[in-house]
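Aim 2 progress update. The chain analyzed this quarter is reproduced below.
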Amino acid sequence: MEEKNKENRQRLMDAFASEDFQKEIYQYRSDIELELTKFLEWMQGELKPSQKIFHSPESRIKSKTGFNEKINRKDYVNKWDLSGDVRNIQEEILKELSDLIGFRITCYFMDDEEDIYRGLHRYYQQIGFQNIELNFDEGTEQANGHKLYKVSGHYKGKVSFELQIKAMVHNVWG
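Predicted structure tokens:
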């Protein structure tokens, strides 16, 4: 059993590290970022003059080291469907790794986080995003006890990502 787990872990790592797969993930990140930038432009008109947000979202793709750590910690080798070829494994990664791609909308003040979160929810319901589904049921807390405004999403029904709204001071804590 341990040998099979080791083999599957290596198959996961190889599928994730594939140059073509990494290029694909970067393209998804770019597409999602474009949609989020449209929201930020809209949000600029909704904020009070004293409220400020950065004009583009920050983003990152999980690193190979981070991916390896997470598949071990969460035991994805035994939880995910790793049957089939490399492409099937890559599709499983895209679909199941909730923070494969991470985005952050940064505001200046802690009091503005909730307003931006509510604005995101309103935008999603009234205007919508191209090919993006969001889940607003994920409230959580940071280690310092502060509420974390986090939304999980899916792009084109097959790519998972995470979006956080944080004040600059919480970027230090987070």
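The mean pLDDT is 90. The chain has seven helices and six strands. These observations will guide the mutagenesis experiments scheduled for the next reporting period.
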